[in-house]
Please model this.
Amino acid sequence: MTFQVLVWLGVAIELVCCVGLLAMRNAADRLHYAGAATLVGPSLIAAAVCVREGVFTTNALDAIVTAALLGFLGGALAIATARAIRIADRKTLESTPAERKRGERG
Amino acid sequence: MNVWLVAATVLLAGLVPCVFVMVRGTLTDALVGLELASTLTTVVLVLLAEGFHRSSYFELAMVLAALQFVGTLVFIRFLGDDWL
Model:
């Protein structure tokens, strides 16, 4: 069944993100996993609901809206959290001379 | 038990690493852990709503998805000045 594959794929990705959160050493690295969990897993779950119920049903549209909210707001939240982490670590949002040099080379 | 309810139950296990990071990590680590825990809870609510075939349960997940954004932003705003 297609929807079962999508459900378990979504669940597996969410669990991988949880393991990644635990495995990483600092908050900035952990944020990558938290960000991925807001977009990939919910989208797959919403797709599973759409496959099961049909796209233009109340359940499917609600699942799509929830996944979209998580995706868009989660991205904005990741940016805000990254800024807070940066300020907590370096006390400023300005890049250091070494970072600027790396940016010029890249 | 259908596949949705089993998946919701399995996904609840993902809250354990989040709580561990929130309890043992720094404040910024806890913030990230809270973010992931909120996302997981929202997905669990979606799975439960589909598993119980109650369309009204989806509203709860939708409201939580919006409120987790506001809640975490409030944490960032108020913790940012003094404690981070």
